[in-house]
Design brief:
Blueprint: H1 2-22, H2 25-45, H3 49-55, H4 61-93, H5 97-105, H6 108-124, H7 128-151, H8 156-177, H9 186-224, H10 227-240, H11 242-261, H12 266-293, H13 295-303, H14 311-327, H15 330-336, H16 340-347, H17 351-393, H18 397-422, H19 430-452, H20 454-476, H21 479-484
Helix pairs in contact: 1-7, 2-4, 2-5, 2-9, 2-10, 3-6, 4-5, 4-6, 4-9, 6-8, 7-8, 9-16, 9-17, 10-14, 10-17, 11-12, 11-15, 12-14, 12-18, 12-20, 14-17, 16-17, 18-19, 18-20, 19-20
Length: 490
Amino acid sequence: MAAGRGVSQVIQLATSIVLARLLVPDDFGLIAMAVAIGGLARAVGDFGVSALVVQRESLESGFVRAAFTLNLITFVGLAAVQIALAPLGGLVLSDKRVVGIIAVLALAVPLQGLASFFQALLRRDLAFSRIAKLNLVAVVVTSFVACSLALAGLGVWSLVAAQIAAAATMALQAWSVNRIPVGLDLAAARRWLPEILSFGKFATGNSVVNYLVQNMDYLLIGRLLPTAQLGFYYFAFEKSRLLSRRVLDLYSGLALPVFSRLSHDTERVRRAYQTATVAALFLIAPMVSYLAFHARLVIPLVFGEQWLPSVIVFQILSIHVIVNAVTSGIGSVLYAVGRPDISFKIVRWIVLPLGLAYFAGARLAGIVGVALAVAVVKSLFSLIKLGVCFRFLHWKWIPTLRPALAVIVGAIVAGLCSLRSMRLIPSASDWVGLLFGAVSYCLVFGLLQTTVNRSGLTLVWRGVLGSGGLEWCRSTLPTVLRSVLAIPDA
């Protein structure tokens, strides 16, 4: 599973480099506007069905048919609504070019609904290796479509086709490996509708609020600033979370079924949340902080000089990426204990102040101001939500988050040291300087974690390796090495 996700990450990175050199900022701005408008259908359409499929203790055949029926009807209906309202989207964003893009992207909506439903069945069975393989195939197909059409000179339509290809590939694959009988059953849908509505109303509320939180910046920039500026912002936002998105997707995919099985013991849920969060940060924080500290070299070297206006935005948004890695898992905890209403009651208060912060930021400082609003206001609300949830669950801040904070501090210190180390070789080429900085970063970060965050390393080793992996390490690796790396005996 890890190998498949690693290959997917490499392919996505290579694809993003190719597209950044073949397309112009205006193309990315158009797709950002269209995706922001179309995202509302995905937020409403699932109605919590996927989460309920995973969270429910048992799955009767009637419930599965009911869930499938409601999922399909809702997403098909929303696709039709998206097509009908596409002209309104162009009017709101003051750009007629986006109308056709929104309408065509509606074709992906039912496919995304089917993919989400069938993946939920796989997640319930903890078939994560199978999901990783499906994702790898989807990434390969999507990358081929996007790069081929971009080379052919189709501009933004290469990105549109990639979105549809991703949804179609994932839906077809997930359906083909599904072993649970599904089918349209209106009678079953009517029977199970009350339960789905009871759970789904808060899940949908969460989804809609999260949609607004995640897309208000795109919508306001698209409305207030030139399309190219949205392209620079979209580029920076996507690149800042290129790695974290894959890691957190894996985290959320694992978290809900695992936390649901532990939901009767909140202390075990706390330990699982702590382990998963620290493991995610060990993957996200070093890479994100290194790239943020060296973005002025990395972005023009890798993606091209045309993306220099995205550098400062990328650096600012990296702050929120790391904060989000700490806070994102708490939503799965609330779903697992059957209280999505708590999450909704918290996040609904963020929409208005965040919208005002985005508007003020865009008016005062353009895309840099919006990025600052994300880094400050959005991150602050994420931490407030985390604190409220900790209070509800009777978890203590310091014992739970100490290892995670040690990872973040270590990543920042290592980034500063890598900047200083590059000054030792001022005459070296940019590539050599970045390589030297990366080596010094790894040395400093590794030294800090093995000395001041041994408890965090131990948590990660236990969670990642399991009893079998720990036994292999005990019988294979030298005692000194295990001691240095904080690998526990059992």
